[in-house]
Write a structure and sequence with these properties.
The chain is of the alpha/beta class. The relative contact order is 0.17. The protein is built from four helices and five strands, in the order βαβαββαβα. A three-stranded parallel β-sheet has the order 2-1-3, with helices on both faces. It has a two-stranded parallel ribbon with strand order 4-5. It binds zinc ion (ZN).
Length: 152
Amino acid sequence: MKILIDPGHGRNTPGKCSPDGRFREYQYTREIAAAVVARLQALGHDAEVLVPEFEDIPLSERVRRINAWCRRLGKDHVVLVSVHVDAAGSDGQRHTAAGWSCYTSPGQTAGDRLADCLYRAAEKHLQGHKIRTDYSDGDADKEACFALWRGY
Ligand SMILES: [Zn+2]
C-alpha cells in the first residue's frame, strides 16, 4: 500500500495565509505532511510526500503523480491524503472559525473507512476542538468532489 500525503498549496499560491501574512498554509501543511510521513515510515508503511517542492505544483501535475502510482500499483493500493488548513473570510480580518474536518470522495468508498479512523483519532486527540461532521449519509465525513480526486 502506497500512502501519499499531499501538502496542498505552494508558497506562491495566492491567499492561503493569515491576514497579517505570518501564517502560511504551505509551511504548516508541509510540516504536518513531513511528520505524518516520518511516523508512517517508522511504523513500516510505504509513505511519501506527494509534493516535496515548496513552489505551487499545478493540480494537473499532482494528479499525474497520483495516477502514476495508481497505474504502477493499482488504485486499490494507493491512499491519498491531502492536508489543508482552512480559514474563514476573505476580507483581511481575523475570524474565529475553528475546527477539524475530513472530506472523502462522494459515495461509499474505501476512503470512508480511513475517514472513520481519522475521526476517532480526532475525537481522542482534539478534545475541546470543534470536530466538523456530516452524518447525512450515515458517517461522519464530509463529501466533495475535489479536483485531486476527479483526476485529469
Ligand atoms: Zn488549502
